[in-house]
Amino acid sequence: MTSAAPSSQGFLSARLAGANLRMMHLDGEIDEQRLVDLARHDAAAFTELYRSNVQAVSAFVRRRTGSAHDADDITAVTFERAFTKLHRYQPGPAGFVGWLYRIATNEIIDQARRRTRQQSTRSQRALRLLHDIATPTVDETASDPALIAALDRLPDRYNTVLSLRFIAGLEPSEVAAQLNITAGNCAVLTHRALSALRALLDPEVPR
Amino acid sequence: MNDDLEQRLQHLGSRPASSLDRATVAAIEARVLRSVVPRRRALVPLLAAAAAVLLVAGAVFAFRSDRRDSLQPSDTSPLVTLTASTVTSTTLGGPTTSATPATTSPVTSPPVTTAVAPVAVTAPEATPAPPSVPSTVAATAPVTAPATAPPSSPPSAPTTVAPAPSQPVPPASFVLSVRRVDDRLLFDWPRYEGPAGQRYVLVRVGPAGLTEWPPAPVRIAATVNRIGVTFTSLDLPGAEPRRWVLAVLGANRELLAVSSPVTSN
Q: Is pLDDT above 50 for A24?
């Protein structure tokens, strides 16, 4: 018995409806893997997973996007997707939060792609010129908006490996597990991603 | 060569990020709730309809098929079968009766229902059953004998009616979930991943849970004949608490796993 999408009744409710979950609380021990197993068929357990990880996911997304508004949006989408794809989760060295980081990174990439598409349309450009309503995609308070913008322009795989490795702070083995590649391939991928990022930031510097 | 870039990325990753306040956490919760639950609720009627179709198909199939679809193990005692079409019954000290489907024989007068003493009923090709094999159906159910039964109606598949020896009930190994939506109970469970699983059977149990297998037929609430389906529903008005157990059966109707009991309201 491993896979099933969780039921939605009582989803994200404040109550701990599941008897198994209550017992775990009584025991004072909530093992993450047991919680994930429970969440596959117990909506209340998913609430626990959400509350345990929402701060970490939100912080990662804020750092990666530099935008608090985008972060809330992406965080919500991340948990929506986690909820619907929970049956696909495979325990790995990075744990459940590592899986959430991966989902969040994919969503960041998708959102950047959508934004690029929107901004490239003539009507959008004309609208911006007319009303001067261009909103910055990166907060001015962000520490390195140029770096964030360059990350968004990287190929997806490079973007993912750098985001997980350096911004989420995962170990190389954990990144490799998330990407389903070997540690050696992960090192090569990271090196190439850094070189590509450098080329974007400073085109004059040879690779 | 890339050390400075790594440091720049790490600096970005270690930048202080204010934690979400409770209101924001709750707002994101609410947003996820709004976006996920309606989608799920929209699916429920479709899934319930699909489950109902499967259940009806399964029930029809079970009626029309041979022992393969009963809940009894295949290596059980000899079975007495009853054909739904024209059957010339050999009675043992009782009246001779025959059963004919209504679709093949228009009945002009009200059908005569005859309560029969123990009757051994055989398939058309079979020889009369030995006296030592009583029919459990005939002993308890009346047999309807229309007046104008055509003698040469094609026989249909037999239906298993004999009980089987009980099997040991394994300890509960997974969790069955149930929730009520209006007059409907929605059950879901994790998929059985074992190689031998063939179908699920939802059983209403008493306070002691599932203590014997096979259970009394009246306790079987639903059968799901596809191992990939992990939900079913029952239309059950009222809020009377009931306890349920889901059993997983193998290809030979052997009991593979059972869920822990769950109580519906």
A: no
Handedness of CA B249, B255, B259, B263 (dihedral sign): positive
Which residue, among A158, A166, A198, A200, would best test binding to B if mutated, counting the most B CBs under 10 Å from its CB?
A166
Helix (H/G/I), strand (E/B), else coil: A76: helix
Does the CA dihedral B22-B28-B31-B36 come out positive or negative? Answer: negative
Half-sphere exposure of B26 (CA within 13 A, CB side): 4
pTM as predicted? 0.47
Distance CA A75, CA A169 (A): 18
List, for residues B59-105, the tens digit of each pLDDT value.
777 666 544 544 555 444 433 333 333 333 333 333 444 444 434 44
Contact B2/A191, CB-based, under 8 Å? Answer: yes
Confidence at residue A15, expressed as pLDDT on a 0 to 100 scale: 39
Q: What are the chain B neighbours of A38 within 8 Å (beta carbons)?
A: 175
Confidence label for A69 from pLDDT (cuts 50, 70 and 90): confident
For chain A, first and last CA: distance in Å?
50
Q: Are B90 and B131 in contact (CB under 8 A)?
A: no
Chain A residue at shortest CA distance from B40: A8
- CB B248, CB B197: distance < 8 Å: yes
Q: Which among B190, B254, B187 has a CA at the least distance from the CA of B228?
A: B190
Of A83, A144, A194, Cβ closest to residue B2 = A194
Distance from CA of B238 to the nearest CA of A (A): 19
Tell me the three state secondary structure of residue A187: helix
Closest-CA distance, A87 to chain B, in angstroms, reads 9
- What ipTM does the predicted assembly reach? 0.74
